[in-house]
Amino acid sequence: QQQNVFQGRCLRVNLQEFLVLHFPGRIFAMSTNMISRPLRYVPVKVDTVSARLNSKLGKMRMLGKSTRNQRKVFVVSNKADTNGGLKPKPGSTVTEPVVPEMKPLAAELKEAKPSPIQEAAVNRGAVWDAVCYDDPLCGGDIEKVDHLSEWVEGLRMYPNPMEQMTAEHFVDPDDVVLRNVILNVNNPFTGQLFHRAGPRAQIVFEPDEVVAAVVTCGGLCPGLNTVIREVVASLWCNYGVRKIYGVKNGYRGFYSENMIDLNMEVVDGIQHKGGTMLGTSRGGSDINKMVDSIEARGINQLYVIGGDGTQRGAHAIYMEARRRGLKLAVAGIPKTIDNDVSIIDKSFGFDTSVEAAQRAISAAHTEATSTPNGIGLVKLMGRHAGWIAMHSSLAARDVDLCLIPEVEFYLKGKGSIMEHIINRLRTNKHCVIVVAEGAGQKFVSAVNKDTQDCSGAVNRDASGNKILADVGLWLASEIKMHLKEKNVDYTLKYIDPTYMVRAVPANASDNVYCTVLAQSAVHGAMAGLTGFTVGPVNGRHAWIPTTLVTEKSSQVNPAERMWGRLLASTGQPAFHNQPTHEDEIAEESASPPTYSFSPKGTSFKK
Fold it and tell me: H or E segment at 225?
C-alpha cells in the first residue's frame, strides 16, 4: 500500500481498468482485474454524503444532508494519482460540496443512453473520478445487531487482550458481508449486509468480570461437543476467562438442575464423542425462571446452541434481560441436522450427516444389486427440508429416486414414482430409493391416525414440532402392493438410519467449522453484541440478528439448479404434470401386464 494512496484524495480511475456501474442514485467502481489490481478504499469524512450521476452521466452533484453528523465517503482507485483531484486534509470535515466536475462523455454517448457496460466499452479512453458515497456497496442495508451500550449506562471499553496474546487480526467494525453476491449490473443493489464476525480491538468485558454459561437444546447433531469445547477454549485461552458454567439438559437446567464448571481439563477430548456432554431436552423454556437464575448467578454471557425453536428462546431471554437492564450478552450458535437454518450457508454437522447417510445408501445399493429386482429403500432425516436426502443422493450416485418434502409426487399414472420404479427394474434390474422423513405426509397422514389425537388435532412434540407418520414404512407397503398387482417378483430391503446419522462425532470439515462458529460467538459477546446468531454467509462468517434466522426455514428450491442436478443424476421424473383422476381410473381398469424372469434371471420380460 503506497503512502500517497492514503492522502484522502479523489483518485482518478481509467475505464480500461474498471467497470463503472451506474446504479440509480449511486456510483460503484469494480476492478476488472481484482487479483493484480485490487481496489483500495480511502475514507474521507464529510457532512454531505449522497451523490449521483445525472441522466447524461455528465457530472456529479451532491444531494441532501446526512442523518448523522459524519458519514464516510469511499474513494476508489487501483493506483496513486499525482495530478490533482479531490484533496481534503486527512480526517477533515467539510460542509460544502467539493466533488469536481467529471470529464464529459462523447456527445453521441449522451444521446444513445447505452447500458453502463456498453458505456465503459465505447468510452475506453475516458478518465473518471469515481467516488462511492454513503452506504456500503452503494445501497445495501446493514442488518443492525444490538449492543449492550444501548441500555447499560456507563459501559466501559477495554483493549482486547488478544493483542498481546496472539497476532490475531482485528476486524474493522465497518466490514460487512453481502447476503447476495450475484448482481445484475442494470439493477441497483439493495440487498442485505451483515456485520463481519471476528475479534474487535475494543471489548466491553474485563476477563475477571465474565461469568459465562453454555447450554445445548433440541435434538442431537454431530459437532455439539466440538462447539462446547471451542467456546470454552476461546474464552479460556483468548480472553483469560475462568468462570464458565455448563447448563445441564437444556433450558430447564437453568432452574431444575445444578450447573457444572467447565474448564480446559473438563472439555479435553469431548470432540471425539457424539452427542453433547451437557445433555439436552426439548421445551421447558420458562423465560422468567431462566432469567431469574441467570441474574442470581451473575451470568453475563450466554451461549445458546440449538435450532430455530431454541434460538427463539434465546431471543426471549435477551429481550427479558434487556427489559431488566442486565448486562447480558446472548449469542446463538445455530444447530439443526436438517440444515434448514435461514440465511447461513449451512449448519454444522450437515457434512457429517451426509457422510454417515452414504453408508446406509451403500448398504441399500449392495442389497438391491445382490438379488434380481432388488429394491433398496432408505429413509433419512428431513422434517420440512430435503437437504440431507438431496445431497446424499447426489454424493452416492447410486440413487434412482429421491423424494423430499418440498416436491410433491404422485404414486400412479404417467410420470409417477411407481412407473419410474418399474422402468428402473426393467432396465437396471434394481432400484435404490431415498426418502426424507417429511416427504409424502399428505398420503401417510390419510392412512395413519397416530399423528392426531382423539379430537383430530395434530400431535406435537415438546418443541412444538408436528409428529410425523413413518413415510418409509408406508412407501415400502405401497411399493409391495403395486408390484404385486403388476405380477412383478421383487425383493425389498428397508433401511432406517434416521438417528444413526446424527449421533456420530463430527468429521474433520465440521470440526473446523464448529471451531470458527464458537470463536465468532465469543468475539461478538466480548465486544458487547447481544441477540445475535453466528454463521457463514457466502463463505464469510457474520453476526446476524436472531430474529432474521428464526423468521423462516431454509428449504430446497425445486426451481434452482441443485435440484436439477439431482434430476439429471437419478433420471427420475420432475412430477410436474400430475395425471388426472380419469387417467388413474383408466390405468386401474386396464388389465395388468404379467412380468417374469428369464431362466438366467438377467432379463425383464413382459
Answer: helix 224-233
State how far the Cα of 76 lies from the Cα of 30, in Å rounded to an integer: 9
Q: Please, are residues 469 and 434 in contact by the beta-carbon 8 Å criterion?
A: no
**Beta-strand (E) ranges in 3-115?**
12-14, 18-23, 26-31, 40-46, 50-53, 60-63, 71-77
Q: To which residue does cell 466440538 refer?
A: 226
DSSP-derived 3-state class of residue 359: helix
Q: What is the distance between the alpha carbons of residues 181 and 185, in angstroms, rounded to a whole number?
A: 12
Cα distance between residue 77 and residue 39, in whole Å: 6
**pLDDT tens figures, 574-603:** 887 665 544 554 444 444 444 444 333 334
Rounded to an integer, what distance in angstroms lies between the CA atom of residue 68 and that of residue 360? 59
User: Position 88: which residue type?
Assistant: P
Euclidean distance between CA atoms 77 and 4, whole angstroms: 12
Quick: pLDDT tens for 499-512: 899 999 999 999 99
Active site residue 338: yes
The single-letter DSSP state of residue 3 is G
Q: Check: CB of residue 595 under 8 Å from CB of residue 603.
A: no
| Cα separation, 153 vs 322, whole angstroms | 12
Cell of 318: 435477551
> CA torsion 213→219→225→229, rounded to 10°?
-20
Active-site option among 129, 134, 146, 338: 338
Question: What pTM value is reported for the model?
Answer: 0.73
Query: Cβ(106)–Cβ(56) under 8 Å?
Result: no
Locate cell 459501559: which residue?
A: 155
